[in-house]
Write a structure and sequence with these properties.
mainly beta, 41% strand, 4-stranded antiparallel beta sheet
């Protein structure tokens, strides 16, 4: 398609409030809190209990009776329900946060985060990040290039707190294919992971960053009115 084209499916007449595009699939969240998916069903990333492709949006029945407030699609899928629980499905290699490397054909709650109210999630290519209500950042999955922010390249099968940002209140997070970003409450932006081609925003420093590093180009001006 060369121009924006409205979906032929009406999603049963429901109003869509947000969408997320993954590597091979898409997710949509409606105003009623239901989740719809379509595209490639490989590894169960569509959440319908199988690996079939879907050419039209199809509601994920596993969320019936639950209100989803956010979704994120990467190589896998994440959802956040109104009670602050995180659900994941699809992918493999530990990116789902269930303590193993198995794929999930249906959404499964990330039990390691139970009891913590999560307010945002982001699915990357092979890793995931989550933001809890206390401003703490958690990451898990493939640690290559340091994209988990733990100071090494180790894989994490369960969510692990990014200690380098302890003492700072994170307000927004985003996971890319090989790197990650976070915004803190004071407006500072941090990046980590693969630095190739300058994707981390640190100028001439193209090295990988194993820990979150502040992007100085956005450092707050000490004399804002004089800048």
């Amino acid at each position: 398609l060369n121009t924006p084209t409205r979906l032929t499916s009406t999603l049963s007449g429901e109003r869509v409030v947000s969408v997320s595009v993954g590597a091979f699939h898409s997710l949509a969240l409606t105003g009623s809190g239901s989740v719809w998916s379509w595209g490639s069903g490989g590894s169960g990333r569509l959440g319908h209990g199988d690996t079939q492709d879907q050419l039209l949006p199809k509601e994920i029945e596993a969320f019936a009776g639950r209100r989803v407030i956010a979704v994120s699609a990467g190589a896998h899928s994440l959802a956040l329900t109104a009670d602050g629980a995180v659900w994941s499905w699809g992918g493999c290699g530990g990116m789902l946060g269930h303590g193993d490397q198995q794929s999930q054909l249906l959404p499964k709650e990330v039990e390691a985060l139970a009891g913590r109210r999560v307010i945002a999630v982001s699915a990357g290519g092979t890793h995931s990040v989550a933001l809890s209500a206390d401003g703490a950042l958690w990451s898990w999955g493939n640690g290559t290039f340091g994209k988990l922010g733990h100071g090494d390249e180790q894989h994490q099968l369960l969510p692990k707190k990014v200690e380098a940002l302890a003492g700072r209140r994170v307000s927004s997070v985003s996971a890319g294919f090989t790197h990650s970003f976070a915004v803190t409450g004071d407006g500072a932006v941090f990046s980590w992971g693969q630095g190739e081609r300058g994707c981390l925003g640190h100028g001439e420093d193209l090295s990988n960053q194993l820990l979150p590093k502040k992007i100085e180009a956005w450092a707050p001006c000490p004399r804002r009115h004089a800048c």
